[in-house]
Amino acid sequence: MFAKVYQYFERFAAVLAAIAALLTLAMSFWVTYDVLARKFFDIGSPWSFDLSEYSLVWITFLGAPWVLLQDRHVRIELLVDALPVLLQRILGVVVCVVAAFICGVLAWRTGVAAIEYFERNVYMPRIWRIPRIWPYCIIPIGSGLLCFAFLLRLGLYLTERDPEATLRTKASAGQESGEV
Asked: How far apart are CA 113 and CA 153, in angstroms?
């Protein structure tokens, strides 16, 4: 059961990461357009800055669950690898519990703020006068997904004999071939 849930969520997170990658690609196009339009035609694109700012938030929260599940985030492997498997598991459990709690609180508090933005119809004080809920609704959603990803990772630490070996395999998958 756990393996199926993990697998389905991993696929879902991969779709979200692909959307984040496409958004990154799109952002590179409009930033390039903005730079070239300013340089050669003296045409400013003030919308480009706002759109890039909003996109960075979306890219971060769409991609984070996949990055965590693939173990491709920043961590101190030198320390973890030096520990015996039992201590690795204990440390992994503690980290996952604390991180899931923090992500859960972040999802809850930003969710409350998002609901307030929606109910009060708060707008962004920027070039684009759009409701504040749209650029920032991804924060509680992404934080909730990241909380769930940490709980799945916790499941790995509780069920796998050597969870760090499993995570190393995930992190290095596709490194030689370029496949994910």
From this structure: 28
| Domains identified in the chain, total number | 1
User: Rounded to whole angstroms, how far apart are CA atoms 110 and 143?
Assistant: 9
The number of residues in the chain equals 180
73 Cα distance to chain centroid: 10
Q: Which domain holds residue 86?
A: 2-172
CA atoms within 13 A on the CB side of 18: 7
| Residue 66 belongs to a domain | yes
The secondary structure of residue 128, as a DSSP letter, is S
State pTM to two decimals: 0.86
What interhelical angle do 2-41 and 138-159 show, nearest 10? 140
pLDDT per residue over 134-148, tens digit each?
A: 989 999 999 999 999
- pLDDT tens-digit map of 111-167: 999 999 999 999 988 777 889 899 899 999 999 999 999 999 999 999 988 888 777
The token duo for 52 is: 């890039």
Task: Let me know if residue 178 belongs to a domain.
Answer: no
Contact 150, 100 (CB under 8 A): yes
pLDDT in tens, 82-103: 778 888 889 999 999 999 999 9
Tokens, residue 100 = 């899931």
Domain annotation covers residue 49: yes
Contacts of residue 173, defined as CB under 8 A and 6 or more positions apart, other chains included, come to 70, 179, 180
